[in-house]
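Minutes, project huddle
Topic: does the predicted pose make sense with zinc ion bound?
PN asked that the exact inputs be recorded in the minutes so nobody has to dig through chat later. Recorded below.
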Amino acid sequence: MPVILGIESSCDETSVALVADGRVVLANIIATQHDLHAKYGGVVPEIASRAHLERILPVLDEALATAHLRLRDLDAVAVGNRPGLIGSLLVGVSAAKALAWALDRPLVGVDHVQAHLYASCLQEPTTRPDQKTEIIDPRSLFPALGLVVSGGHSSLYHVEAATRMRLLGRTIDDAVGEAYDKAAVILYLGYPGGPKLDKLAQTGDPRTIDLPKSLLDRDSLDFSFSGLKTALLYKVRGFPKGRGPAATFERSGADLTPQEQADYAAAFQDTAIGILMTKLQRALEVMTRQGTPARAILIGGGVSANSLLRRRVAELGQARKLHVGIPKMSYCLDNAAMIAGLAHEDFLHHRFDDLNLPAVATMAQ
Ligand code: KG4
Ligand code: ZN
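Predicted holo structure (tokens), as shared on screen:
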């Protein structure tokens, strides 16, 4: 069972993981930086890269200690080298190169977005015989329809193989996680808002507030979330008087009663997840029309932790008799286990990188 060390540092989580055989997670240590960025309401790139630098070695030590392994036990070193914040990526990529060179082990660069769609294949080591989880061979899932939803991405993919994907649609403005975070600010829920809004939505009634469900053209597989965010802003605060930073509003999110806050959260959640579900169904039809019907629906990224999305994707899979790959909660947010897991595919085929591996800010086309 080859053991691969993975490093993830693309945004504001510093993570190191050890994964055996591409799926058994022996350790997955994540140091989040939420406390450092909270007061700015979003990630500040310079602060993020500095924090990665401070945390990467302690996180590496903790991962090895958790897995009871030494550096010489590793078979390869993997790193998420694209896409992400360039300064943050550079920290992980430099650490991975140094380890691979010093240990004389192969280096594997991994696409962060592809890794999110691999995350549902990850499992913890079974401790009791009755705790056996279903082992899925990733190769049996393709072609699959993939949906990556996070703070930086809302994209649909035709997944031909674990490391081969074709983009079907993407957001033309905000990513869905970004819209969640902004909606949470409007509703005075704090940062990062996605999980807080999701929790509150479960106590609200979505029917009390009408928000627009932007689906773009009839056949479009692209997403748009900025109109939804603005509609929520105007419903909560009233129409602005004046323009730009000088604009004033009739009300503020702080004036909402707890029940109103919950109802707005529920209406936002219902609309945002409704948009994702409509596009998933459209994309399944497109794949069928193209003669490559999907055998599975795979989701990944921070928003795949959302309770309503998880439930509705599971129902869709059941209705269409498709396998559904939903990551365990611990593998939805950015983590290194998904990087080490996906690297196993390249490891098996001896597809390695050399010390010229670049950090790349943009998505692969
Ligand atoms: O994948 P991720 O950790 O980082 C990026 O690559 O962006 O995703 C973080 C995003 C944040 O926008 C966060 O608010 C959102 O995922 N998120 C959620 C939930 N949990 C995290 N959004 C909706 N519902 C959730 N339960
Ligand atoms: Zn991510």
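Observations noted during the meeting:
- The chain has ten helices and ten strands.
- The chain has two domains: 3-122+330-348, 139-223+258-325.
No decisions taken; revisit at the next huddle.
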